[in-house]
Each structure stands twice: as C-alpha cells, then as structure tokens.
Amino acid sequence: MFGIRRSTERRREDAATAAPPGPLRDYLSAPFPDLATPVTELSLLALDVESTGLDVEEDRVLAVGWVPVDGLSIDLSGARRRVLATRRDVGQSATVHGLTDDAIAAGDLPVAVLTELLGALSGRVLLAHHASIEVGFLDAACRRVHGVPFVATSVDTLHLQRRVLTEGLGAQPDPLPGALRLWAARERYGLPRYRAHEPLTDALACAELYLAQVAELSQRSSKPLTLKAIRAT
Amino acid sequence: MADTELAEVADFLAGHAPFAALPARVLRALPARLTIRYHRRGSSLMAVGVDNHDLIIVRSGAIEIRDADGGLVDRCAEGSTAGSTTLIGPNPSRFDVVAIEDTLALHLPAEVFHELSQAHPDFADHFDAERADRLRTAVSSVATNPAGEAILRTSARDLVHRAPVSVGDDVTIAEAARVMTDEGVSSLLVMDGRGVVGILTDRDLRRRVLAVGVDPAGPVTSVMTPDPVVAAADTSALELLVTMTERTIHHLPVVEAGRPLGVVTTTDLMRLERVNMVHIVGDVSKQPDVAGVVAMARRLPRLVEQLVGQDVAADDITRVVTTVGDAIERRLIALAEDELTAAGHGPPPRYCWMTMGSRARHEQALGGDQDHGVILADDAPEGAEDYIGALAEIVVTGLEACGYPRCEGDVMASNPRWRQRLTGWRREFRQWIHEPTSDAVLTASIFFDSRPLAGDDTLHARLAEDIAAWAPQGHNFLGHLVAAAVANEPPLGFFRGFVLARAGDHKDTLDLKRGGVGAIVDLARAHALGAGLVSVNTRSRLLAAGRAGALDPAVAASLVDALEFISHVRLAHQTRQAASGATPDSRLRPSELTPFEQRTLREAFHVVRDAQQALAQRSPGHLT
C-alpha cells in the first residue's frame, strides 16, 4: 500500500517537474491529501464531464460541472458549471446532454476552463461516478495543452457502491446490472431524483451519494474511515 | 450565462414555504449560500443545550423535534425546516432534532437567515409563527384565546394533584431513581430537616448521571439541581407558565409556609389549557334551550382545529370531543324531560341513558353519528316505554341539530328495540353471547362498548357485570368477534398504485376508519372481552390485555401508537373538511398526505395487519 502511495506522489512530483510554469504545474506542486486523512476532514471536488462520446482521444468535452466537498459538507458556493466552446459539431450527443451547438458556440475557451478546474482541484481529491472517464478526459486535455500527464488521487462513487453492495450484511456477490449506476445508487439511499446529464446536477448528485456512502461505510467500520480506505487511485 | 445556477436546489426551494414567496432573483442566488449534509437515521442534527447556527431544511427523509423532556414537538418531512428558534431567539437549542429516516439536509447559515428575514417580512413572519407554535404553544394561546381567563383564575395550589414525592439529602442516586420509578414520578424533591434543598428530574438522571457515567452509588446531592426555583401556592397558572417557559424548566415545586405541597409540571399546564377550552364549550350545561346548545356545538370543529394545530395527541382530542358530546347529550336529555313535564307527562321513570360506540370508548371524532339506548328499571310503571320513546324523539332531533347525524343502523333509544327493561337487555346479551349468529354479533358489537350517560348508573353497572362474566365463556361468540376483528383488512394496497374503495363518491379515497381505527377497535374488543376485561376505551383495552397476557405487550403498544397516528391524520382531515364547510368523514384523498404521512400510515397499517394475523393464527377454530 505504501508503495502505491509513493508511486502516486512520485508521479505527481515527476509531472510537476516536467510541466511548464502555469496552472498545471501549480496544481501538481500542491501535495495530495494524506492517505491517513479521516473522511470527516477530507477535501474533495465532485466533478462531472459531458462529452460527445467516451473516447478520450476522439471525443470532445462539451461541458463540466463541479462542486467542493469539505469533510461531510457540500459547499454549494463553490459550485460551477462551464460550457466549452468547441469547433466540432455536437451531433447526436445533444439528445443526451441537451447542449445545442448555439449554447456551445457561446461557451468558454477550453483552456480557460481547464485552468479554472485545475485551480479548484488543487489540494483536493477528485470525486466522480466512474471516475476513470473524468480522469481520462483531464489527462488527454493536459497532454494536449501542456504536454504533461494529469495525476490525481481519486475517489469513485461507483467503486464505493460496489463495496456497499458486496461487503457487509446482506451482501450480494454480484450486484444486479444497473445497481451501480448513479441514479440507482441514489435511489437506494432515498436521495431525491434529479434530471440527469446536466454536468453540475450530476456532480452534485455524485457528491450527495458520496456523503451517504461514507455515512454507511463509517457505520460498518470499526475505525475512523480514511482516504486510504475509500480511494480508487 | 447562469453558469453557477443550481437549478435542482432552487426549484426545490421554490416549491416550499416560506422560500416560495421569495422573489425569483433572490431564490436563484440562494443555493450558492447553502451547504448540504447527509444525516443517517438516528443521528442528531441539533441537541438540547448545544448552540445551533443553521436553519436546517429537509431535502429528503424526515426528522423529529423533541423538547428537553423528550416530548414530541414536531415531525417534519421534505420541505420542512428546523432550527429557527435558535436563530430568532437565544442559543443554546431547547430542542433535540434527530433524523428518523436517512435525511439529506440543506443548511442555511444564520447570517443568510437574518438577511432574508430583514429584507422579506413574509419570510420572517413564517418563522415567527413556527417558533410560537413550537416554543410557546401554551403562552401564545393565552393571548388569543378566551380560555386565557381561566388560566388566570387557576392557582398553583389548584394544579397540585398529589403530595410531593421526596427523599432525604443523605440517599444515593440509585435510591432516588428507585423511589421515582416506584412512585411513577418524573421529578423528586430532596429535603433536609428544614425544607426543599434540591430537585432531581428524569432529565437530570439522563444527562448528569447516565450520559456522563457518574456512579449511581454517589450522593443524590451531587447531581440534583440545588435550591430550585419554587412557586408560592397562590401564584396564578399563567405566572407559572411564564416562569417555566422563561427559565426552560419543566418541574416547579409549589410551597406554602416553607412546606412543599407538590410539583407542577409543564404537562399539567398544557392539560389545564385544554380543560379550559373544554370548559368554554362545556358551558352547554347552562344553556336554557336547544338553540343555545346548538350554538355551543358549532364551536366544536374550531376547537378541534386548534388542538390539531397544537399537535395535541389524538387520544386527548377525541376525549375532548367526547366530553363536549356528553355535555350536549346530557343537556338535551334534561331539556327534553323539562319539556315533557311541562306538557303534563312524568315524572320520569327510573332509567339509564347509555351512550355506545366511539363515544362510549371516549374516542369520538368529528362527524360521529348518534348511538344510544335506554335501560329501564324492571319496576318502572307500565307505559314507561312510551315516556322514553317520546323523550328519545326529542333528544334525537336535538342531537341532529347539533351536528350528530341519526344512526344509520337505527341504534337509538327512539327505536323500541333499544329501550328495554333490564331483564330484556340481559336476555338480548345472553342470546348474543351464547347463541350468536355472525350478523347478530356484528350488529351487537356496538353494545359491548357502552357507558352510562344520564339517569341511574346502577342499571348499567348490573348489565356490565353480567357481560364481563358471560363473555369469556361464549366461545362461539368470541369466534365471531375474532372473525370480525380480522375481516377488515388494512388498505395496504393503497400504497402500491392506490388501490382504493371503488364505489360511488368514495372512489379514489382511503378509508381510515374501516381498516384503520375500526380494525384496531375490533381487535381491542376481541382481546378485552376474551380476557373478561371491563375496560371500554380502546387504548385501555389494549394495554390491559397486554398486562393480562392476552396480547403481546409489545404488540399492544404498537397498536396504541398506530391508533394514535391514524386518528391524528383523520382528525386533521376532518378539521380541513369542517373548515371548508364539508361534512367530516374518514375518507382521505391521497393528495392530502405528505410522503412522510404515507410512509407512517403504511407502517401503522402493517402493525394492524400483523396483529390481525397473529390473532387469527392463535384462534384458528374461531374463524370457521
């Protein structure tokens, strides 16, 4: 376990050295939260990305939403939603996320959004549902813009949900297909129904789910829950 | 571009008072000033004695608010708020707030709360009203309610209803706790040779002993409140109320010449307030004619509305409705006797007018119909039946004018079958018990819930003794009672896609009586008569059956809770109907229920169904 930590920190330091001065280097220069940090004191940033598809090389990010989680409290004052101006047509994906070409034409420059997001993420753990997608898009963007990979400590509510369902009392070895999806997981906790596929709403939905999961896992655990016990990478 | 707009949160707030009334611009900017927290079922959001700085808005789930004595103040579901008392008034909190379901809550900081209150008077008014409701129900009603006069006339001396329970100052905490348990009191005075030196309450035992792990073998003087506030015997009830509210104390020793007379509790004061309201309506006994009685009866729905609004227990409210109904019926009987005398009939023969059904059980709701009968003495003169017939006609008409419809089954003293001599009644009951038919038992069940209302009580007492003695032997009779008690299935289907009564006017409504209150009443009757118990009130029957071993005490307690909740929903529904000029009934539209009420009702109906199944299994032979 210690080896993994060292390698994540090593990768962060290596990437920081390689990065040109600017927002990515600033982000990479801030140490990640210590793995021994209890969840009650852990700072995270719940993030959701809406894109034209799931191929991080070919598809483009259309919009992002994020909201900070400080300990066991979601801070709505830090909630942001950004639509990215992109030259590529939205095409069929508009039926999923509802972003039209016009809305996107009026959006922010992708580089500016990346800078703002890296600033918000500094010193925090990245929180997402199926986090590899968010991490993948950020990595592709960082490589494209700054020529350096993106490194993060992340917590994935999809992984946590699998643990909630497969460990402890009343566990099922194989959760039903669909039970791990964001909206199904929320329903299990009686969390309110939201309109899906709006990036800020999805980020908020993920953050709320995280609080519910952490409450349940804390109750099951004999010792205080730490970042080490819940992180994905 | 509204790039930080939290549409889901803003839309939610826009759907609930008092946020709904805020201007759209303010509402849109509000979410960014909130935080969201998740509280697992059973966790505390606010505690007595701890400072609070947020207004808590329930986003999903449900919370419960209790006062320092553990009394239930409010239960709140989605869209409700908690915490305003500490934002408007002083910290620390006087309430415990606990999540009773997994709860997602929006937290609105105090400074935002004050900003909104100053800029939007409607917003401030909403919380002032809520605070008044929760914190000072009693005090505020004094100001607005004619009942306040009575509370000024009542003194501390009048409120003390038992001698004080006390211990010496040399006993241990454990001994003191034992005395409190044995005496069934929530507070104890600690005395030395000269007088009261301290007071110890249930709450002290909880907070100063259990919560902090103090050794119960220690001296009681180490955990009592020394030199407590006391009241002189002639202090008015209003002063007591103000003192107790201001100092947040719930037990006040009353002393006279240095000697304690007893202890007044906040519950005593709350009860007094209710009694006085009954007293106002209870002036019916002084009304000179039927029109005066009718005018008094018209005040009943408004009184019930107030009590429901103050979250008075349904059990207490139905007792109030019953008491007022009794007073009305007694007065009408007396007026009818006068009228007959004036017309040259009389004197009245020896008789007992009995009330039956829900009124007899002290469980009358609004809209209840008339159920009564008359037992004539065996030695009453010939023609006494005719006198009672004429009397009953007058009373029935008067009751109708007062808002009590005629009994659909004609169970009224105006029906010759229900005005008989004692011998006749004994014959009827013996037949019901020893040679029952299913129909007859159903019709007759109402007669097993009876109570003398006017005239000679001893006639009723004779009959009641016989019934209690005969009933446990009537196995077929008990079988029919059990069958009836398990026949009215709780409408659990209601909660799965609203499968409801389909007939006529009642389409798409939920009947709270048939499978709810009525089913619990039937269960209680079957258990009580089977065990030969004389209680008539459903709550008493259930608890007595629990003590007698005829019913699992835990099930009895759950049924009492279920009855209380269903009755409360029913009373709230009836007061809404009465306020809009409709005839009160027990049929609810699903849209009247909050999600929290739906969930709790479903739980209550499950309790009823489980109890029915347990009874059916225990008495399989009774079902054939």
TrEMBL record, chain A:
What's the protein called, per UniProt?
A: DNA polymerase III subunit epsilon
Name the SMART domains on file.
EXOIII
User: Which sequence ranges are marked TM in the entry?
Assistant: none
Keyword entries, A-Z: Exonuclease, Hydrolase, Nuclease
What's any one GO cellular component for it?
A: cytosol
Show the taxonomic lineage: Bacteria, Bacillati, Actinomycetota, Actinomycetes, Micrococcales
Q: Does the keyword tRNA-binding apply?
A: no
The record's listing under PANTHER family reads: DNA POLYMERASE III SUBUNIT EPSILON (PTHR30231), PROTEIN NEN2 (PTHR30231:SF4)
User: One GO MF term, please?
Assistant: nucleic acid binding
Q: Which InterPro entries match?
A: Ribonucl_H (IPR013520), RNaseH-like_sf (IPR012337), RNaseH_sf (IPR036397)
The leader peptide range reads: none
From TrEMBL, chain B:
Q: Which residues form the CBS domain?
A: 160-216, 224-284
Keywords attached to this Swiss-Prot or TrEMBL record, sorted alphabetically, are: CBS domain
Pfam families recorded = CBS, cNMP_binding, DUF294, DUF294_C
Xref: CDD domains: CAP_ED, CBS_pair_CAP-ED_NT_Pol-beta-like_DUF294_assoc, NT_GlnE_GlnD_like
What GO annotations for molecular function exist for this entry?
Answer: [protein-PII] uridylyltransferase activity
Q: Which SMART domains match?
A: CBS
The record ties this protein, via PROSITE patterns, to:
CBS (PS51371), CNMP_BINDING_3 (PS50042)
Q: Does the keyword Lyase apply?
A: no
| Record's keyword annotation contains Cell inner membrane | no
Q: Which segments constitute the Cyclic nucleotide-binding domain?
A: 18-116
Q: Which PANTHER family match?
A: CBS DOMAIN-CONTAINING PROTEIN, CBS DOMAIN-CONTAINING PROTEIN CBSX3, MITOCHONDRIAL
- Output this protein's name: Cyclic nucleotide-binding/CBS domain-containing protein
Q: Per the UniProt entry, what species is this protein from, by scientific name?
A: Janibacter limosus
Q: What is the lineage of its organism?
A: Bacteria, Bacillati, Actinomycetota, Actinomycetes, Micrococcales
